[in-house]
Structure formats: structure tokens, C-alpha cells
Amino acid sequence: MFRLREMTLRLGSWSRIAVAFAAAACPWEMTSAADLSRIQNIVVLYPENRSFDHLYGLFPGANGVANATRDQFIQRDHDGTELPNLRVWNPKGEPDPDYPLLPNAPFRIDAAPLSKSLTDVMLSPIHAYYHSREQINGGKNDMFAAMSTVGGYTMGYVDGSGMKMWAWAKEYVLADNFFMGTFGGSYLNHHYLICACAPKFEDAPDSMRAVLDENGKLKKMPDSPSAKDGAVRTYSGGLGGQVTPDGYTVNTTQPPFQPSGVPPVDGGSPAYADPIGGGRIGRPLPPSAMKTIGDTLSARGVSWIWYAGGWNEALKDSMQPSQQKRYVIYTRADGSLNFQPHHQPFNYYARFAPGSRDRVEHLRDGEEFVRAIDSGTLPSVTFYKPVGLFNQHPYYTDLITGDSHIADILEKLRRSPQWNNMVVIVTYDENGGFWDHVPPPSGPGWSDRWGPATRIPTLIVSPFAKRGFVDHTVYDTSSILKLITTRYGLEPLPGVREKVGDLTAALDLP
Description:
Largest sheet: 8 strands, mixed
CATH topology of the domain at 39-60 and 163-199 and 255-506: Alkaline Phosphatase, subunit A
Number of strands: 12
Number of helices: 13
Strand content: 5-15%
Low-confidence stretches: 1-32
Helix content: 10-25%
């Protein structure tokens, strides 16, 4: 790590130019240049499932949809041939009569001929580990339609200029080179946010393991159609293979503790999920012992909390007998909390088992988050997960409800007594299966088996943030861990990628 300020003082103006050039060429080498001691609170807000182009592709000054070349957006069939047009598939994988044929190009969802509103609950493309890898196709980004359950709909984007979060992005920092940490969906990306890892499930049954072909891709069924005629069909089913052949969980697997999508055993402890599981959802993950950012923060005595919207209600509901449940979890009725258990990564780890002191201390309800903001009692590091109703996930909520909620949280934070020493990061867990034109970084120090994957929107909001700034530095989800680790002098987590930035390029710190 270079120490830019010391070098600049010792060397003359000529050397200042050389140091500045080095910083521009190798931003990952410069992460210790800023004095982070003034930062007393780091807050991470974590909504859902939107790619950068899908949500901010029209943002002024950003690398958006208009910059995509034909080679970056043309979609191809499974055999590599160019698709003549884009079709949208229904849940049966057949052409959806509610959607017209579309040109093979990005298109506005909120403009003719689709003319959807940002208050509508939109389609949700599949977002799973092996699908994501194949969609990105080595950086060509040309297999999104072919490997999607909704076909060409994956190429849709919206004009977000009327959203409240656009106003925050214009006032503070929008990062347009921030990539989701791993291929796939919410489950693995939530784990990556806290451990830069994929949890192991070495004893997973064969029914949960991905079925791959000789090239390491999902094995297609004999009747899987051309991308011109229908949605892809694989042997790994709708979850896309929860566990790799060598025993890592990469797609939605339920937590071993309540709240969980797996109910308790009848007559057993209501605080635990049935370890046998069953049906499509499979067995829950056995309690994990992999090291998390929570472990490293606690080891240094740094306060931290994971706040989850709907946590108390979901916990109460999940521990009831089936006939008494109020369906807080996974309910898609209008106005439901729609709590998602696989969005709560610490609930998978043995350290936070029911009855443990760490669980009580570190896993809290979203209402407590709001009270801590107002009273100025937030811990040094805060994670906030909006409940499903407010997280902007397609299929069960809309964009505007979550947009208003997150903007309201930011306004509360800006009025907080702790604001003057705070950095807030608003980032999405993953792309939700939506296309983006920028290939993820690759190569030693930039990438590994797990990712990074598609570009996602990220805002840095802080009194230290540069104003009205689009930050082009290359980041991924592990950049958040890098910032926390650097600020508090923590032991680095092994999976954090060496060359991605630590978010300090978005800040004005001496």
C-alpha cells in the first residue's frame, strides 16, 4: 500500500504528478491513502435485484445504456446464432400473449409498447448461480435472454429519473462500476456481503446438487427448446441447483434457525427448522462455522448489528403451529410484509444460534434500526435489510414503494445526531437476472470461482462524499468489507478480492 501523503510531501511537484498517475492506473494499490478515522458509523442498506442498466441506465454522466455497443447487447441462441427478435415467456416457458415481439436490443419497460408503470409489480427473471455464469458468457453478456425464464424481458430497463433515489444519487455519489460479488441470486450474495464466501454443505443430498454437463454448465433436458421458441429447461429445476457437485451452496437454501422457509419439526423446538426439510425447497443448511465480518468486528470490540425489517413478526410467525401461522413469510398478498428468510445471512451461522448471546446482541428488528437512528445510538457498523414489501424485488413488490422507503431511511440518517461522521452505502444484492452491458472484471486479484458478476447500482451518501459525482472506480460487494476492515483495522477475510477498490475514491477525506 502506498502512503500518498508522505510521498507527496517528501518529493517535489514532479513526483506528485507521478504519484497521481500511479493512483489513477492502480486504484486498488491506494486504499490506505485516505484518513478514515473520522468515520464513526458505516451503514449498509441492501435492497434487491436490479442491474445498473436496468435502473440507472439513463443516469446523466454514467456509463449507461446509450454506451452499449451492438456487440454488448445482441442476444444469442444456445448455439451462438443471433436471435431474430426477443420473446417474453410465461411461467410454462411458452410465448406470453401479453407481450409483443421485440427487437433484439435493450428496451424501455415503462414506454411503448409495454408501457408498464414503476408502481407495477414486474416480472422476475431467474437469478441463479449457473444461469448467471452462462448469461455473462465470459464477459460477452449475450446469453441473458437464452438462459432466462422470461426470455427477452431480461433486456428491459426503466427511466428512473422520477425516483427519489435518483435525487440522492445526483446529490452525492453514484458508483457505475460496482459489481455484485457473486454469480447468481440473493442467497449467495447475502453470504458474500458478510463473509466473501460460499457456505459449505458437504452432506447435501443429490436432489439438491446441480446437474452439469461436460463443460460445467447446467445440463439441458432433451426437450429444452431453442431460445427462439421457449424458455430453457434444465435437470436442476427452478432453483438452478442449490449445491455445487463439490458441496458449496450457491442457490437458495434455507437457514437452520427460525425464521426459515422450512418449518419446525412437529413436537420439536419451534426455534429450529426441520433438518430433514422436504419437497422442492430441500434441506436447510447445517449451521455454518465460516468466518464472517461479524466475527472480525466482535474480535476487535467494534459494535455492529444486522437489522432486518419484519424480523420480530417473522420470528413469531415461523415458530407457531402451521394452523396458527399468519403467513408473514413469503406471502405475496398486497401489503404483506413478505419476509424472506434467505435474506438473513447471519441466521445461518452457529455463532448466532437460538439462545446465544450473539443472536440477541447482533440480530435485531428494523423498528429498532429506526429508533437507533433517531436517538443517535447506531453501532459502528450497521446492516439494514428492508422487508420484502420495501426491498424493490420484482414479482412481489414494485419499485416505487421501496424507493420511497429507502429515501425515507436516508433522510432519517441525515437528520441523525451521528450523521456528521457517517458513511452510508446503498447497494443492491444482485441484478435480479436483468442484463447489463458492462462485463465484470476478471483475472488474478479481480475475480475467482464465485464472481464478481453483473453490475449493480450503488450510492455512497455521506457528509464526506463527493458531491454530484459519478465514481467510475471498479468495486464489488467485497469492497464494503474492505472499507470496514480498513477503517477498523480488522483481520481481512480470505475471500475479499485484492484489486477492487475500498470505496474511498467516493469520499473527500484528507
